Amino acid sequence: MFHRLFMVAAALVAALLVVPAALAVKVHVRVEGKERTIFGATAPLVDVTSPRADALPENALDALESASVLGEFYYHVTPTSFGPYIDQVGRYPAVGQTGWVFKLNGVSPPVGANEARLKDGDTVLWYWAQFGIAGGPKTLVLQRQGRCYTVLQQDDNGSTSRADGAELRIGSKRTLQTRNGRACIGPHKGLLVRGTLGGAVRSNALA
Asked: Residue 144: inside a domain, yes or no?
């Protein structure tokens, strides 16, 4: 009798340990390459589950893994003394002053991707970056109000300002210059709108 109770209790404990690993956080994920978007122009909501049962909660590296499965793109991780290092996504490896970095909710965290923990509703952006004296490139964020769009730029600390000089790209053929990062456009059914600015990472896409 005692043995049976022990086995039942052990099974319950095992079930409790397994269940969390099957749960996922839902986060917005986008991966921007050197020349084009690799995954999730609209920053879709992705179920992110860590492949390591003992590594919950999920992290920004898990978000890249989940995106790579959905988008069927390649990435490479090199183990280092500082933790895993993403040295290639898609066709482009990290070389010299270029490389692959990420932001969590618009901020470059002071920790590696494997330590940047996620919670539901977070936004993870992975992108190819060229670094200079001032650091990495600013990333663009597109917002919409009615038929008007505003392009914002964020630095590594998440400081946000209007992206003066930015352009709106409507579909693949039309561009529109903004004024202080803002412009209004006419009907564009079925076309996505994005913000671009020289030296910055292209924005998310909106309808």
From this structure: yes
107 and 151 both lie in a single domain: no
**Spatial distance between the Cα atoms of 131 and 159, rounded to a whole number of angstroms:** 18
Please report which confidence band the pLDDT of residue 14 belongs to, taking 50, 70 and 90 as the band edges. Answer: very low
Same domain, 88 and 150: no
Tokens of 188: 């564009």
CB atoms within 10 A of CB 51: 10
Taking the C-alpha atoms of residue 146 and residue 152, their distance in angstroms, rounded to an integer, is 17
Checking if the pLDDT of 35 tops 70, the result is yes
List pLDDT tens digits, range 132-142: 877 899 999 99
